[in-house]
# Entry
Amino acid sequence: MPPSFDLAERGFCRVRWRPGRSPDENPDAPVGFRELLVRAADIADVEVPHPPALAGLLRVLTVMAARISGLDALDRRTDWEDARLAVLDKGKFDPGAVQRYFAQHEGRFELFHTASSTPFLQDPRLLDECRTVKGEVTSSGVNKLALGRAAGQGFVWLAHTVDDQPPPLAAADAVFALLAWLYFGVPGRCTPRRVGETAAADTKAGPLRGTVSYHPVGESLFETLILGMPFMPASESSPALWEDEPRDPCALPSPGTGVGGLLANRFQHAVLLDPDESGESVVDARITWAWRLARGPAQDPYLIYRTSRDGLPYPQPAEASRAAWRDLDCLIGKHEDHQRPTVFEGLDDLMSGQGRAVRIKALGFEQDRSQAKDKQFYSGTTPAKQELWQQVDPDRFGRLRSARVAAEVRGWHLRGALTEAWWELVRVRPSRAGKSRDGGVPWLHSCMSDYWERAEHHFWQAISTEQPPDFNIVNRFIHLALKSYDTATGMVRRTPDDIKIIERNRRRLWTGYQAGPETQNGAEND
# Structure
């Protein structure tokens, strides 16, 4: 039989079961798409190797959840919100609806082209269309597919591999590598592809490249998918990639609207995986361009958007050093400078009425959007607090925003004081320092990391109580900045001139201090 790995049935994704709800036999076994959805109410969360793949998987599962629940079939937002509440009250997906969905798309979840003419999220035409300028069939290699491996002349990142002897990639791992490529793939040079008279070897960036996604997270995978489902009118519906027939890559791209098209059919890369004889591993891959013509603009419902100088929206870039709580006021309320992810619209009313303990998960990949430079992927989650959604109360939201701004301003002051102190101490300021990490200031990264870790603790202290805290939040962040500054500068030699430099820059951190009866209690003992 030809190699096969049907993702609807074969286990590829490990999960964390809710207490007392795991299967009696082999509870640690990975599960496939069908079981993920049938037992979504029993699953606390999925366990995915890295955040980029999780960001992609959640979008794929959300499309399936929308189809199965019928929430993709409504045009009016009020009707959709009522229907979503009714689905939540049921507490699980209808097993019959799950079975019907997978029966309708039978064969579309097969991972390998050896077992299906429509492999999952892939284009089987690449088997013939990936050719060199001489017309010879070519491929990208499995090292190119695997996130973290070095391929070609690329630098070693997370794994030491060479193209001469690339180790196979387990089929389950290849699923997550496929998701990472489609959503976060690099622009520029790629494996050549010839379609008719059109031959090219370049592609555009993946739709999520260099971004950070924000997802509501409930007590179960079922809640996570329903709460994290954005409203999109049925009249705008277009199919997800696995629901669609292959299109001419030289024609206009698919519309990419509606829950299916927007979340799972705006890819710029075309991929095809080659299995080994057993179907348990991937031994080669083709990664190339999917479309020659540009797509129309669209906004992903899980991203924060800023406004450019030209008045155009653009997604907030991912920053590995930026924790999720620093965007909390934008996520649960309105921000004067940023546009909140549309998935959170209306969610605050639902949460305040339901009293559910909902977290917000950030999934980011800090990358250069226009070059093949991957820096760091990361994730973070807010505490599971019912009080989180009570922050939409005007008084509490004002306190939240004030606390966030106070932390940001003191962090900005700390960064400036540390930078100026360093360059004054070394008495040499290279003309190209701005192009090096942290502007060439070696203690900046560790010191700022220390400050933001401490600041998060006090931020939650300030906003988690019904009444305002009994401490001055601005002063609290000033004390934290001072402590981080003293830790960094405490190792500097103590000549009279050095002391003057350190103290002169230290005084900058006292800006905004408000005198009063408050003590430093708590700031020194965090």
Summary: DSSP finds 15 helices and twelve strands in the chain. Residues 393-526 form one domain. The first helix runs from residue 33 to 38.
